[in-house]
Amino acid sequence: MIELQHVSKAFGPTQAIEDLSLTVGQGEFIVLIGSSGSGKSTTLKMMNRLIEHDSGRILFAGDEIRSFRPEDIRRRMGYAIQSIGLFPHWTVEKNIATVPELLQWPGARIRARVTELLALLDLEPELYRGRYPHQLSGGQQQRVGVARALAGDPEVLLMDEPFGSLDPLTRVALQEELSRIHRASGKTIVLVTHDIDEALRLATRIVLLDHGRVIQTGTPLQIVAQPASDFVTDFVGRSEVGIKLLGLETVAGRVRRNESADGEPVAETLTLREALSIFVAREVERLAVVDDDGRPTGCLHFSDLVKPRE
Amino acid sequence: MSNTRHPSSALTTLARDPLVWALTALMLLIFGMESLKPLFVAVFPALERPIYEQDTFLALVIAHARIVAVSSSVSILIGVAAGIFVTRSAGAEFRSLIESIVAIGQTFPPVAVLAVAVPLIGFGEAPALIALALYGLLPIVQQTIAGLESVPRGARDVAKGLGMSNGQILARVDLPLALPVIIAGVRTSVIINIGTAAIASTVGVKTLGSPIIVGLSGFNTAYILQGAVLVGLLAVVTDLAFGRLGRYCERWRFAA
Known about the structure:
The structure holds two protein chains of two kinds.
Chain A: E1 2-11, E2 14-24, E3 29-33, H1 40-47, E4 55-60, E5 63-64, H2 70-75, E6 77-81, H3 92-96, H4 98-102, H5 107-120, H6 125-128, H7 138-150, E7 156-160, H8 168-185, E8 188-193, H9 196-202, E9 205-210, E10 213-218, H10 220-225, H11 230-236, H12 241-247, E11 266-267, H13 272-282, E12 286-290, E13 296-301
Parallel strand pairs in A: 3-8, 3-9, 6-7, 7-8, 11-12
Antiparallel strand pairs in A: 1-2, 1-4, 4-5, 9-10, 12-13
Helix pairs in contact in A: 5-7, 12-13
Chain B: H1 9-16, H2 18-32, H3 37-43, H4 57-87, H5 95-107, H6 110-121, H7 125-135, H8 137-149, H9 153-161, H10 166-197, H11 209-217, H12 221-249
Helix pairs in contact in B: 2-12, 4-7, 4-8, 4-10, 5-8, 6-7, 7-10, 8-10, 9-10, 10-12, 11-12
């Protein structure tokens, strides 16, 4: 979908990106992560030509991005940023309709699309379409921001620390929302963050950057379990590797199907990390497990957290 | 109607509106100055003709408003264009130059501009219009720049990232958001112009300054009063109307 080949970019004397190569495949959820100044945001902005690369090639759907008009390529990629940047003088409806209007969709189709997106992002359409951004909470504003990025049915969604300014609860809720949208729509998403937990939670593939170079690329499990260097281990959090590993797997994979336990059951869709927390909080060694519909599926032993049974 | 329980509420709102009061006072004076004749006779018993009669006050107000409208339109066109130009990346380096030129434009008193312009282009409207247009530029340019700079950075970034062209960003995001601030500048400029336009009568242009000038040279205090009160009221009405317009342009801010 997007391919960066030996791309470099300098801002004056500072080399921001050095010989970076990266392929974003159809349907992937790529998270670019790194500390500030690592070049993650620059990499994202080069993809829709908000920043022009100095050398190398960037291909979008097989064509060099410079063969497109910048406006055209941007309308084919959704864009959402940390400050949200809703247009304060436009209603929620008009904000979401930004790209469809640029693409000159007919009015009825735009209206239907807005309704669909508001519902998708859990905002009651008739209640919210006529409101102005200043009448919304931060989380609702960012939902509208995401809806606006999705509105033109873009082939790729580019997100620059979209949840950075939200409180932890709202952030997790929106991450789950985005994860669900990704699974349901199969959209290709490239997201920039400096939050390793966000990356582990969302990504199908993580790209860890430092000083404009790719340090490691891999699935969340590979990044945590097989770090390429000490830098990666430090970034993930040296003292928390085990916890992060537990966060990547769900209870379903380790449940003992033929056993049962007493007490309040837990859902098998919980991560092992959440299960650990429940073990400790309840001071128990075994937890009853149920599926989505509340039917008992078995039990989880505390020792199952350490390693799967043979 | 929805007002059935408070049948007087629309009327009360109207009665509390300062714009309505000022406009009514202006209209009464324009059309009813004649009927104040006994008052002026009583206050200025020495005057032979206590009411200015060379022109109707309606004609004077219209002429005055026309001079202001023409000169302010020129100020607005040039001022807003200059403000937009220096806030684009292409014009950024001209910013301090244009700001100084505009500031100098307001430093010169309009009387001085008129004095210089008359020998060059002669008596009449042209020198007056030039002087007024130059004099009114400063607040418009300043406020256009301030308004455009107050547009939230995030909104501009996203507008670009979503694929708006520079022209679309200007027309759909920058100008609508800057408009209330620009209108505040236009308001100041027009109010200054209404006052200053009276001076144009010194070079033979018919304005509300005419009774003032004639009154000053002929020691007719009544004429001076009549011209001055009308200029003042015209300014007040215009000011209130611009306040209304400014609020209308950012009515989204007040949505509850």
